[in-house]
Design goal:
Elements (H helix, E strand, L loop, with lengths): L1 H21 L4 H21 L26 H13 L13 E2 L15 E2 L5 H29 L4 H16 L10 H13 L2 H5 L2 H9 L7
Antiparallel strand pairs: 1-2
Helix pairs in contact: 1-2, 1-5, 2-5, 3-4, 4-5, 4-6, 5-6
Length: 220
């Protein structure tokens, strides 16, 4: 899944860069599409029973044993949902040490205990749901979407590209990007901090590049 996660992130970020550079007048539309993907995913999975992770496998152009399209996430979403329902924890989660009942064995995942439970799920959305339920997911989504929208309104392309990086990470949270003491977490929260900086948002194109290039920095 790591390779697919990186590939998806690259594709989404490149899509954002192309939009900002060549399709400026459509940036709000593209941004809206980006932010709607997780919502569409949850609606399709939990109301229609359709997993977006399975869609490529229906195509005749992909082999069923293709590692890029093998679905290793849908069952995790169903397991997490069932565990939260069984424990009456849909909205408030199971806590930091809460455990999800899984079909995986300790031979496959060393974190699975003797009762067939584990306190870790590979997708960031599921980790947030395990720890704090729907409330965590809503707060997390609001933080990312608000900061990315602020950056999207910036008067320079640097901040606008950061906006698309944030929304791309929001989408990638469906399959990975676990928040812990790692580079991914530091980077995304750094981007959020930059997006909430009014001075950076209002900077003109030439001033932001002067700041990046460390030229005429004292005039900024």
């Amino acid at each position: 899944m790591d390779n697919r996660f990186i590939l998806l992130l690259i594709i989404l970020v490149l899509g954002g860069i192309i939009t900002i550079k060549y399709l400026q007048k459509y940036k709000i539309i593209v941004w809206s599409i980006y932010i709607s993907i997780p919502l569409i995913f949850f609606i399709c999975l939990y109301t229609l029973g359709i997993s977006l992770f399975n869609i490529p496998s229906y195509s005749k152009y992909f082999k069923s044993d293709n590692a890029l399209i093998t679905d290793t996430r849908t069952f995790l979403y169903l397991e997490t949902k069932q565990s939260l329902i069984n424990n009456d924890a849909v909205w408030n989660g199971l806590g930091l040490n809460g455990k999800i009942t899984t079909v995986l064995s300790s031979d496959i995942d060393s974190s699975v205990d003797q009762k067939g439970k584990r306190s870790f799920v590979e997708a960031n959305f599921l980790e947030l749901a395990r720890r704090g339920g729907g409330i965590y997911i809503i707060l997390y989504s609001c933080l990312l979407l608000f900061s990315s929208f602020q950056a999207l309104k910036a008067q320079n392309r640097f901040m606008q590209n950061i906006a698309f990086f944030i929304t791309s990470s929001h989408i990638c949270s469906l399959i990975g990007m676990i928040y812990a003491m790692n580079f991914d977490t530091i980077l995304i929260f750094l981007c959020i901090s930059l997006s909430l900086n009014k001075r950076l948002i209002t900077m003109k194109e030439e001033r932001i590049y002067a700041l990046i290039d460390n030229k005429n920095i004292y005039r900024i």
